[in-house]
Amino acid sequence: MPTLNIAHRGGAAFYPENSLVAFRHAMALGCAGAELDVQLSADGVAVVYHDARLNPGYTRKNGAWLDGVTPRIQDMTLQELRGFDIGRARPGSDYARAHPEQAAVDGERIPTLDAVVAQAKASPDFRLWVELKCDDTQDSADPVALADAALTVIEDADFLARTVFVGFDWRALARVKQRRPT
After folding, report:
1. Pairing state of beta strands 6-7 and 33-40?
2. Phi and psi of 163, rounded to 5°?
3. Please, where are the H alpha helices in 6-76?
4. Over residues 132-141, mean pLDDT
């Protein structure tokens, strides 16, 4: 099996994690593909974001950094989520220290899985490792609903042959396998 260069979270070392600009950069570098994280919005949209709650280490609203206990992804609609800027690491944060070379791209928004897949389709060989981000906590979306939403996006885009579903919650992975045994 060949060695594959996969951009983790789209290439978070270089650009804001799980952002369209990061995925474009990974494609421009010639990566074989990218790993990304999928959550489910309140209105059932598969969105690309790592944490179950908005991360104050790189998320702002109207220029102000989030503080304290932040909202859960599953409690916000896509329209509400699009109001947050994920394009810059918060100066002095643990996140900024972990990503010292990450370029800031102010105005970058939380993308939908559909938008990432559409971008990935521009390259005939680019693949996606779609991590279904769910668990048994109250912060997490329902694993079956998340799996259904993500799989529907991938199927509707005719991108299943270039997608690998991954995750730590077997209920989500079992649902994908149930719907697509092959």
Report:
1. parallel
2. -125, 140
3. 20-29
4. 95
Cβ neighbourhood burial of 112 (10 Å; 0-12, 13-18, 19+): buried
pTM: 0.96
pLDDT per residue over 38-52, tens digit each? 999 999 999 999 999
Contacts of residue 113, defined as CB under 8 A and 6 or more positions apart, other chains included, come to 36, 38, 46, 47, 48, 130, 149, 150, 153, 154
Q: What is the pLDDT of residues 90-99, one digit of tens each?
A: 999 999 999 9
| CA distance linking residue 57 with residue 42, whole number of Å | 23
Question: Which residue type sits at 59?
Answer: T
Token readout for 8 is 């983790």
Specify the pLDDT at position 2.
86
